[in-house]
Amino acid sequence: xxYSTIRFEVSDGVATLTLNRPDKxxxxxxxxxxxxxxxxxxxxxxxxxxxxxxxxxxxRGFCAGQDLSQRQMxxxxxxxxxxxxxxxxxxxxxxxxxxxxxxxxxxNGVAAGAGMSLALACDITLAARSASFLQAFARxxxxxxxxxxxxxxRLAGDARARGLAMLAEKISAEQAAEWGLIWKAVDDDKLMxxxxxxxxxxxxxxxxxLAMIKxxxxxxxxxxxxxxxxxxxxxxxxxxxxxxxxxxxxxxxxKRAPKFSGR
Length: 263
What we know:
Helix content: 40-55%
CATH topology of the largest domain: 2-enoyl-CoA Hydratase, Chain A, domain 1
Low-confidence stretches: none
Shape: globular
Number of helices: 10
Distance between the termini: 27 Å
Number of domains: 2
Structural class: alpha/beta
CATH superfamily of the largest domain: 2-enoyl-CoA Hydratase, Chain A, domain 1
Strand content: 15-25%
CATH class of the largest domain: Alpha Beta
Strand order of the largest sheet: 1-2-3-5-7-10
Oligomer: single chain
CATH architecture of the largest domain: Alpha-Beta Complex
């Protein structure tokens, strides 16, 4: 399918989704949301053969958040931002987080506002050393959205979450890594090679196991220890019946590299 605001391709089990409005730092529009919705639905479909997803941005930015040039501000007409969030941003984050496969983010430039939220929503996020992260919402009199008030305190702690949200100060990729917001910062010229190698590796791994790792980690903050122990038991019981578990054990005993099928 042809898209105008994103690039999307699937090869050898790896889906690559590139936000493609470089002249606008890949800022979100309603059209982009529609195309992302379509692409993510295809990735979630088992018939598509996707086993890992890489998300990045075209040009010098990852994503600058909402394209404010699409906001028609008048004295007499209020804008229902809640409707925009309900119909566009929340479905995007929910769809991304619920994908039953690993999602790698490669932040190649500024990630601001909902663009930062998108980066935080990925399972493993790498960033170029020249990249930056910004919770820009307070500059507009808004609250961080697209999951940022959920991700920030869990990843960076309450004090840093409040500072990032209220002060709207830009931080570097290396600082984001030090605070636990992302997996790591890498040299600019190595970002895509490292991110591509990582996502290709994940696409060869036991996909159902990785999906259940995601599920267990997502449930952990709300669970008691006893509830989490029971969840681990239930997930392990399910995974014990998979072809990938049998292959993993067999390969270990035969002292060879496993060949996982994602089943």
